[in-house]
Amino acid sequence: MVAIAITIVSAFEGFSGKKYYDSVHVATICYGATAADHVDLTRVYTKAQCQLMLGRDLPKYDAPLKKCLKPAVYNALPPHRHAALVSLAYNVGGRSRLSV
């Protein structure tokens, strides 16, 4: 699921190896990582480094999904749908309340 989610997130988020400010003026790097993700915003990262960080970070966006889906539904998710839901959670932020 994580490999599929990396592909989805990276396609939608876009890549910047150096710091930029997103649409709400939050300092961001790589594929949407912020200071909250404990990244060094003063560094310049390669695509490969950013993909590794994204792969490390995506599982934490899966935890809220697991809480809001019934176990039978969560466990039956095909990998591509699971990855799409993790991508959504990443895009809206892990602290958002999703009603799925």
Written account of the structure:
This protein is 53% helix and 10% strand. The two termini are 18 Å apart. It has one domain: Lysozyme (Orthogonal Bundle), CATH 1.10.530. It is built from 5 helices and 2 strands. Strands 1-2 form a two-stranded antiparallel sheet. The chain is mainly α and 100 residues long.
Write the layout of secondary structure elements.
Blueprint: H1 2-13, E1 16-21, E2 27-30, H2 47-57, H3 59-68, H4 71-76, H5 79-92
Antiparallel strand pairs: 1-2
Helix pairs in contact: 1-5, 3-5
In helices, the fraction of residues equals: 40-55%
Q: What's the N-to-C terminus distance? A: 18 Å
- CATH hierarchy class name: Mainly Alpha
Average per-residue pLDDT, rounded, comes to 89
* Shape summary: elongated
CATH topology-level fold name: Lysozyme
Count of DSSP helices?
Answer: 5
DSSP strand content: 5-15%
The description of the largest β-sheet is: 2 strands, antiparallel
CATH architecture: Orthogonal Bundle
Number of strands: 2
Structural class based on helices, strands and sheet pairing: mainly alpha
What is the string of SSEs from the N terminus onward? HEEHHHH
Poorly predicted runs of 5 or more residues:
none
- Please give the order of strands in the largest beta sheet: 1-2
Quick rundown:
The chain is mainly alpha-helical and 100 residues long. The chain contains five helices and two strands.
Task: Please describe the structure with a list of short key phrases separated by commas or semicolons.
mainly alpha, 5 helices, Lysozyme, elongated, 53% helix, 100 residues, two-stranded antiparallel sheet
